[in-house]
């Protein structure tokens, strides 16, 4: 199989933000099929929404029925570009959505790849520490950022836990 020319069906969370719209346009141009899970379909520009390779499922992060529909769309790739709004105090709605969605994606049997875009404020054990980094995270993101740090950390932890579950389920590496 020619990996570079492989076409995918991608389920995208966060498709109406700046990165999501740029990604959607590029993926459609490359010939992929996309299913966007969005709160507000009207944010999708007409030149994208009219593309026959684009499907839209409207739903909120807490909408389990819409999440079930999204997980059953047949996508072989799941990508989340959703991120918290800096400064807001709204808990961890994206993480809560991932906790609903991940088991559904595993159960559907079609999803082979999962990619979550976050920020660099989640530290992995192998990361090198610096005073500048420590100050930026602890005094800017944690204090001024509202629930952003909590959301980003929770998203990362849930995704790392999913990776560990996948490794336990299969001898094939998913990374």
TrEMBL record:
InterPro entries the record matches: NAD(P)-bd_dom, NAD(P)-bd_dom_sf, Polyketide_Oxido-like
Parts forming coiled coils: none
Residues of the NAD(P)-binding domain: 14-133
GO molecular function: biliverdin reductase [NAD(P)H] activity; riboflavin reductase (NADPH) activity
Pfam families: NAD_binding_10
Family: Belongs to the avfA family.
Protein name: NAD(P)-binding Rossmann-fold containing protein
Lineage: Eukaryota, Fungi, Dikarya, Ascomycota, Pezizomycotina
